[in-house]
Design brief:
It contains two helices and four strands; from the N terminus they run βαβαββ. By secondary structure, the chain is α+β, with helices and mostly antiparallel strands. It has a single domain (about 10-80), classed as 2-Layer Sandwich (Translation Initiation Factor IF3). It has a four-stranded mixed β-sheet, with helices on one face. It is globular.
Length: about 80
């Protein structure tokens, strides 16, 4: 039997928007995501560095990584299997 490849990450682009829009876009994308799928959030609001990890912890999502590329924060968040 062959293993199915995981679904491609969904991308939520919140660049140019301020709090709370990045977190709201992440929430919406995670609600659309398939179980186990990841969402990549792009944001340039410095407060997202605080808001996104807090949101993930309070809602039970797993923050896989948080990196910066130029002025863009890139968060990889996984939706649980359940």
């Amino acid at each position: 039997m062959t293993e199915e490849a995981p679904p491609a990450p969904l991308v939520a682009d919140a660049r140019g928007h301020r709090c709370p829009v990045p977190t709201l876009r992440l929430r919406r994308a995670l609600e659309r995501a398939a179980p186990g799928q990841t969402v990549r959030l792009l944001a340039d609001d410095p407060l997202a560095r605080i808001d996104v990890p807090h949101f993930c912890a309070s809602e039970g999502y797993r923050l896989i990584s948080s990196t910066m590329q130029g002025r863009t924060l890139i968060f990889e968040v996984a939706r649980g299997l359940g």
